């Protein structure tokens, strides 16, 4: 299981939005969305 999928499952189990988790991590909602969808092109990885 990829880290993005694990992160999404953990976030959803706590009933947190991408925006809420993004604020906690200091990243944008869009960046978190890219991480959860394993979209490496948008992350510069």
Automatic annotation (TrEMBL):
Source organism of the structure: Algoriphagus aquimarinus
Residues in HTH cro/C1-type domain copies: 7-39
SUPFAM superfamilies: lambda repressor-like DNA-binding domains
Top-level lineage group: Bacteria
Protein name: Helix-turn-helix transcriptional regulator
GO molecular function: DNA binding
């Amino acid at each position: 299981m990829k880290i993005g999928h694990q992160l999404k499952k953990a976030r959803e189990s706590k009933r947190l939005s991408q925006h809420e988790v993004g604020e906690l991590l200091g990243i944008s909602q869009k960046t978190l969305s890219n991480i959860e969808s394993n979209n490496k092109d948008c992350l510069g990885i």
